[in-house]
Specification:
This protein has 5 helices and 5 strands; from the N terminus they run E-H-E-H-E-H-E-H-E-H. By secondary structure, the chain is an alpha/beta fold. It has a 5-stranded parallel β-sheet, sandwiched between helices. Helix 2 packs parallel to helix 3 and helix 3 runs parallel beside helix 4.
């Protein structure tokens, strides 16, 4: 199937997403933040990147911008559980910056599988 890079500072969330994706037959690699994501993608580009919006090491919006700037056409799904007191909608901003689609936490396995399928089968 596809190689998916999961970027989230929460190890438990990475484990949950990994399991959901592996059940669908995907190869999963993980990064705990924005800088690790960029290093991992540079070493071996993924077919799809799942990016959390709120991380201490380069937030998701910065990570999306950097992926788009440094690499040719990465496919990105932005995920977020919300930011509490933020004054903007991070998933809407992520879509404007280049995320193909967005998901809210907690992520539903069927919803994730469908989003991944759609992103991977959509022509650039």
């Amino acid at each position: 199937m596809a190689r998916v890079l999961v970027v989230d500072d929460d190890q438990q969330m990475r484990i949950v997403l990994r399991r959901m994706l592996e059940v669908e037959g995907h190869e999963v690699v993980e990064a705990s933040g924005g800088e690790a994501c960029l290093r991992c993608y540079a070493a071996s580009p993924a077919d799809l990147v799942l990016v959390d919006m709120f991380m201490p090491d380069g937030d998701g919006l910065e990570t999306i911008v950097a992926l788009r700037r440094e690499f040719d056409g990465p496919r990105i799904i932005a995920i977020s559980g919300g930011g509490g007191s933020v004054s903007f909608e991070p998933l809407e901003a992520a879509a404007h910056l280049g995320a193909v689609t967005t998901l809210t936490k907690p992520v539903d396995a069927a919803e994730l599988a469908e989003a991944v399928r759609k992103v991977l089968t959509t022509a650039d």
